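ingest -> validate -> predict -> emit
validate: passed (alphabet ok, no gaps, 477 aa)
predict: started
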Amino acid sequence: MSHADKVVIIGLDAAPPELVFDRWLDELPTIKWLTGHGLYGELESTIPSITCPAWASMVTGKDPGRLGIYGFRNRTRYDYSEMAFVDSGWVREETLWDILSRYGRRSILVGIPPSYPPRAINGRMVSCFMAGDSPDYTYPREFRTEVEALTGGYIPDVKDFRSGDRGLILKTVYEMTQRRFRLAKTLLSASGGQDWDLFMMVEMGTDRLQHAFWRYLDEAHPSYCHGTEYGDAILDYYKYLDRELGEILTLIGGRATLLVVSDHGAKRMEGGICVNEWLLANGYLRLLEYPREITSFQDLKVDWRRTVAWAHSGYYGRVFLNVRGREPMGLIPPQDYERIRRELAQGLEDIRNECGQRINTRAFRPEDIYPERRGIAPDLLVYFGDQYYRSIGSVGHKKFWTRENDNGFDYANHSQYGIFILYNKDLMNSPVGARHAVPLGRRPAHILDVAPTVLGCMGLEVPVDMKGNIITGANIP
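emit:
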């Protein structure tokens, strides 16, 4: 593959290979053409497979441990206060556009998490869904006027996508996506593309629609609904996205390398594990009083002086230990830390479903998955039931399992593998000359491979501290 002057990255948050490459490929003509003329395959996500840190890892080539970002919310102190939400200020490693700016190359960025609040770049930026209703979501600030004029009102995200108002969610997803692609196509074509070297956008509609409508898609879902008007909602949306991708491909022609990627995949949510209920029942968590109704963890009256461990909600579990000399009312002697953590991991992995069957839960120690750990990592990261179950942090359920999400209507969880497609008109003619080139097809590509691959396609040196490898089509079986 020859070095391209420009690279275009279209991110589809949470797009799963099982739908895109397996189930629906024949109904997605643009994606099918790209897979037939380029490289494609599964893209292994970070642990955890969460929007933040996954996109940040993709554009830096650094894992969550190096970034110090272990989810949307992270501890900032060893105490019992609420965790802080990630924003752009948490990304302290060089991004692709930071590196490109050193070479005088310009970037246009649209919707890449976490990019709010927007930061100065050599180019232009529309920040991510975290902007909410803020008017200051672009760089430079005056770029907002152009964005609003081009889109008729930019929509950063779908508000209340867990509300259960399916009609409104579907309408808003399409409005948001249409406006974002209208902006993208205009920016890509303006001045013949002379204004950018890297163009990257992330569309959140895939994620939002899957969380709201997966029950209408998956016959194995516990809440599957057959024969409704929403049965093809997700498929129809992917068909629409495929048409937009076709227009993007036509716009850039042979002038740029095109990547289509997702930060993780999706799968049905079969239920939730009430992890704090389990910790209570097993003596690890102590309360001054058990709540009369289902209560979020931050509103519980915790007896910290007698608590060994507690956990938080999410698409994965975060378990924290109350360590003497580390937390203000720490109970665990440092010499007992590993023993208790190992005991907790084994107990969590042995949690059964309502029928008494094991569900393939995995508890990860941060040091086993991150060579370096910045910030404050959870003591354990837990995938409940092979990611078919989410972590339920609230208390008051009086049981270990629930079919409902404790954060609104939600029918999908995240999965470990997203998608990767790379197309360049010279792709099949010559390999990328690069260090540690990885032929896609031998193993899944990794999300850390994307940043080195982009730099390799642009003929630029890959920083030695990037963890990934350049993906190449050479020697594909």
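The longest strand covers residues 6-12.
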